[in-house]
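Record type: ASSEMBLY
Status: queued
Input:
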Amino acid sequence: MKVRYLLNILGKLCLGLLLSLAVNANEPTSMQRVPIPDPPKALENFSTEQPCVEPIDIIRRNHGSLLKHRRNDTMYRGVRTTQYSLAACINCHVTPDAITGNYPSISQDSEHFCRSCHSYVAVTIDCFQCHASKPDTSVNVINSINILDTSRASQ
Amino acid sequence: MYIMGFWTTFYAIAFYLATLFLVIGLAYRIFQYAKTPAPLKVPTMSAPLTLWGVVIRILSEVVLFKSLFRSNKWIWLFGMLFHGALWIVLLRHLRYFIEPVWTWVVLLQPFGKYGSFIMLFGLLGLLVRRMFVERIRYISVPSDYLMLILLLVIGGSGTMMSFVSSTDIVQFKAFMLGVMYFDWQPIPTDKMLLLHLASVILLMIIFPFSKLLHAPGIFFSPSRNQIDNSREKRHVAPWAIEKFETQGS
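Status: finished
Output:
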């Protein structure tokens, strides 16, 4: 008897939960209660088929090891490849503030493309102890990607 | 309108149920332990003579596993490696539940990352003990193995995600916070993550029914938590007075 009563209560709780969530799902996204990082949009798409140098799913999961591989290959083995270039990432993804025109700081501003997600999940970045965290303004973004693309094709 | 995927719904509801089981089950068990009568004064000698002495004794059991250290050094070592690393790994996971993440949790990240190997090493040691020490093997029941294997699966899949096949942890944190704020966000459906979460959920559910209750239980061991003052103060349970000493008068 007692167990049945408890299960009954539990079942009603679950049902209530589901119903309340069904209502929530209809709310507009501006009502969103969950903090989610909102990194700025990149300047250009990589190609008409895909926005970044790899499909977004792969970039989100493996950008760290792609860049690290490159670091290991280049630093320790002296192999210079151009497929995953940190400089090109920065040139395309780090964009100036719409009002002040300044580039966000990697150590302070959550608007910095890398920092917005990295601080969300407490992953420290050591790239920028050596590398520049702001774009090289002398380089045209489209050109920099295209140069990479042609140099990759010629290898 | 965003329609929730199957896995998001499944895991969100599973997390609610598992949390209910864990919290209510654990509270009930602690209530049960607290209510269990200890009619006799049975502290294992040599026992502390004051309350503070008892506090220190229990802490040295809980933190340092003192009596295990006295009885068996190598089991103590594996137990210590496992429990110590488990703490660091657990605290590292706070980053998925807190926004913004506390500074000390950020600083803990690399330790937790490599602590996972120590945790797995300790677990393997305890599993080997259970399988190859004859007297331990004799008293082992399936649930003893189940706990070790479950923890190995959790630790193994977690370590795999850290070092071999990554998942989208930003999206996963959004899912976790969504579950907490009752505002669901899609879960990344990488197999390793789903395996990791499923085994964690299973562990949360069976926690209040399993030997894992040694965690709250150790605080209630009469042979450790009693003061050795049987001469100074009469030890008697209220129900015993009621039953044996009020009838005649």
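Annotation: Chain B has a mean pLDDT of 93.
Annotation: The first helix of chain B runs from residue 6 to 35.
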